[in-house]
Amino acid sequence: MTESPDTQILLRDARVWGLPGLVEVRISDGRVSAITPSTTVEHARVPAPRPAEDGAWDLDGALVLPGFVDAHCHLDKTLWGGPWVPNTAGSAISDKIAYVQRRRAEFGVPDTERIAALLRHVLAQGTTAVRTHTDVCPELGLDGFAAVRAAADTLEGRISVQQVAFPQFGMLTNPGTVELMDRALRSGAAQVVGGIDPAGVDRDPVRHLDTVFGLALEHAVPVDIHLHDRGGLGAWQFEAIIERTLSTGMAHRVTISHGYALGDVDPAHRTRLIAGLAEAGISMTTCAAHDDPVAPLREMAAAGAVLAAGNDGIRDLWSPYGDGDMLHRAYQLASRAQCYADPQIELALRAATAHGASVLGLPAHGGAVGARADLVVVAARSAAEAVVSRPPRALVIGGGRTVIPA
Asked: Structure pTM?
């Protein structure tokens, strides 16, 4: 991967997702400064983006997508770039939590160099913004936040990193954790307050939500709650979070991550929950991984509820899987949601771009004049083709600086 400190970039004969015909995209000082129609006649041959002699890029009809947004990952836990570690955790959520807590120090987690290596990798795959859930516990203190921030700083603004104060090992059940979360938010190390299974992990859903929403209101930050609990128990927690969001005025500032219960309750109950999410402006993130229930993409889109996508763990003690590629994640989501028509497939890509940006509270995102120049170029003629074929990234632009994948 090579990088360039460009201040001016010109993309010729670009096919920008959502715009008709071919255009020229001009980037100045890190932002899209102009989009003008191209005079080139469209053709049917396979696009072949390439750098031109004058420093511009001739895209030849290649597709320009917004930078991908990983709205749910765990950078602090990654083993990326290190020696292979056989995973011996049990399959239950409680087994995985205990396994990570027991063995993280043994493998030097968190490790700034591994986190930086993973960030460079995902940037080369087109991800220009991430929300990462950084573990908070008395044994670790705030070391994870420092490691993630140091790693992000090495990329000098090419990728945006937002950290969640995440009580992975329990919040109320792990004394000292709430105080550390408060410290992380007060210092600015964390920009979001997290939670985890108010019933299944903390065994006190009312006090858990009191604490999480109390911290959010005190520090004026968003909320992002992991919700693995399934069936009726998980559905009841959906209802409790919806009610709490409405009563505290936190609409459009709350995200439920995973939310497996939404994928396994009966259809009528699911419809009511989705309507509640839309009314309260609560977003969801899904990773569409393994055999876990996946949020109903098409139903949520029809109801106006926001669904974003993320990678979850990427090669870590929780799971040996994950490649960090958000275009692959969009493919997984479209496939599992049984999306076959192009507009349906594009819903999955929107989850990996615009909806992720919405969850992170990012301003104008994508190929629009005035937006931060976070763009991905692929040799495809449509967004649906890009999701299904997952072509190599020909060019990535992060914060107005070019990244040319190896």
From this structure: 0.96
